[in-house]
């Protein structure tokens, strides 16, 4: 694949600020994907949050790792079905085996996805992957799919990829987007210059609570920078104050509080306690989500 125009025939606007959204996975009582709740949430992220792109089964907070391969494929199918062509969909294909990743990439292409997202993998037999290991893994996937690849960087679930290794991966023909989840601002600042500004790939990072982020972007695009800064400060406590509970429980609790039901975390992991829910609701009521936020009286 050549790095011509971004995504070739699947071009969409990545030159302006936007939101690439990974909907959380709601589960039924018997731990199947709750399709009705998933559809409602996708309508929220596309309609209310103005997602630029939706990610299917691509990040750990989506709890896709609890699913069998067939369940994961079904989640991908349902996500693409419920988005219904309103925005492009990027499909997560991360897996220790590049053959399974390729199988998921083929499904993504068959279903009309715009791109695939791949977590920089740990070595299953232990030890940090070398640059040669990482390049071999991404080249093996790139040879088998025509879809653009998003390199997903999330140390912990995936490898802790050094700056030189990240730049080397960004130069691969198939890698056209890079999602940075390290939250290392010095690293992010440098790689904006050495990857994005250098023209190797589009480089972006993470921001939680989608609707707040949409207000930040809208204010910025309207050149109301004072308002954009004011809105950005709404992330000062949320979700970081509750991150010791894990991102999936916190984000599921927040969406439940604003009237977008997504249920509880996959067991045995627990939802926030009653006191935590009330504190979270109080925090959300200080944000642009105040009118949406319910009072958890009997949590």
Q: Keywords, please?
A:
39% helix; alpha/beta; 299 residues; 10 helices; seven-stranded parallel sheet; 2 domains; 7 strands; TIM Barrel
Structural commentary:
Strands 1-2-3-4-5-6-7 form a seven-stranded parallel β-sheet, with helices on one face. The chain contains ten helices and seven strands. The longest helix is centred in the first third of the chain and has 15 residues, at 69-83. Strand 5, helix 5 and strand 6 (175-180) form a beta-alpha-beta unit. It has 299 residues and is α/β, with parallel strands linked by helices. The protein has helices at 35-48, 69-83, 98-110, 131-142, 163-170, 185-196, 210-221, 225-232, 247-257, 274-284, and strands at residues 20-21, 53-56, 89-92, 115-119, 149-153, 175-180, 202-205. Helix content is 39%, strand content 10%. It has two domains: 8-206, Aldolase class I (TIM Barrel, Alpha-Beta Barrel); 223-284, no CATH class. The radius of gyration is 19 Å and the shape is globular.
Mean pLDDT: 91
Per CATH, the class of the largest domain reads: Alpha Beta
CATH-scheme architecture of the largest domain: Alpha-Beta Barrel
Tell me the Rg in angstroms: 19 Å
Sheet with most strands: strand arrangement: 1-2-3-4-5-6-7
Short summary:
This protein is an alpha/beta fold. The protein folds into 2 domains: 199 residues, Aldolase class I (TIM Barrel), CATH 3.20.20; 62 residues, no CATH class. It is built from 10 helices and 7 strands.
